[in-house]
Specification:
- This protein is of the alpha+beta class.
- The chain has one domain: Peptidase C65 Otubain, subdomain 2 (3 helical TM bundles of succinate and fumarate reductases).
- It is built from ten helices and six strands; from the N terminus they run βααβααααααααββββ.
- A six-stranded mixed β-sheet has the order 1-2-6-5-3-4.
- A hairpin with a 2-residue loop joins strand 5 and strand 6.
- Helix 5 packs across helix 7.
- The longest helix has 21 residues.
Length: 225
């Protein structure tokens, strides 16, 4: 991965995983390529947003629906008690990225946007704040899964702050907030097979992420024959 890249070009999966263990062979059978994302504590949010936009890049209706979803999140922020000054600028950055994708449905444009530090980090900050708002708006459900004095402390310290690694509860909250289904594959653990998590369960994932040593990269499935 290039030293400066926040999101790198796609590469053949064998270049990242030359090992010949059963798990890695299985990974190569299921996925053809991988896109590395910088391991800066923000990798999940950056990977999720890039992968989702890439998956709908040539679908004008899906891009418009995603844009409308982002606009509607303003209500969720207000319900959670966020002042407009705390989220509006980051939400506008996210909207601007989507609008540029609508104007120019090119992977190169998307890659350039996500490698501009200010733009890319603005998107990540928006997603972090959105995750926090969703957790707070559904506190009756989520507080059971949070290890902190209370949910608000958890959101301020672990979710909203940049460079903090995300937990499963954050992934579930963001998936719900944006109505995105995520497939997470992990080669870790003692099992002989890869671990697969689809969030929410039973849905059809629009993006695939590799989780390894607390880090997320983007995976691309092999075409189904």
């Amino acid at each position: 991965m290039e030293a400066w890249s926040l999101v790198a070009n796609r590469e053949d999966i064998t270049s990242l995983f030359p090992e010949q263990t059963a798990k890695y062979k299985d990974l190569k059978v299921q996925f053809s390529s991988v896109r590395q994302v910088r391991g800066d504590g923000n990798c999940f949010y950056r990977a999720l947003c890039f992968a989702h936009l890439e998956s709908i890049l040539h679908d004008a209706r899906a891009l418009q629906r995603f844009k409308e979803t982002i606009i509607q999140t303003s209500d969720g922020f207000s319900s959670a008690g966020f002042d407009q000054s705390s989220f509006k600028r980051h939400m506008n950055t996210m909207l601007n990225v989507v609008e540029q994708c609508q104007r120019d449905e090119q992977e190169d444009r998307l890659l350039r946007l996500f490698n501009r530090q200010m733009t890319s980090d603005g998107v990540v900050q928006y997603l972090r704040l959105l995750t926090s708002a969703h957790l707070q708006n559904h506190a009756d459900f989520f507080f059971n899964f949070v290890e902190a004095p209370n949910l608000l402390v958890y959101c301020h310290q672990e979710v909203e702050a940049m460079a903090m690694e995300c937990d499963h509860v954050d992934i579930l909250a963001l998936s719900q907030a944006l109505d995105i289904c995520i497939h997470i594959v992990s080669p870790e653990g003692d099992e002989q097979q890869l671990t697969h998590h689809v969030i929410p369960e039973g849905a059809e994932p629009s993006l695939h992420l590799l989780h390894q040593m607390s880090h997320y990269n983007i995976l691309y499935p092999r075409p189904q024959n």
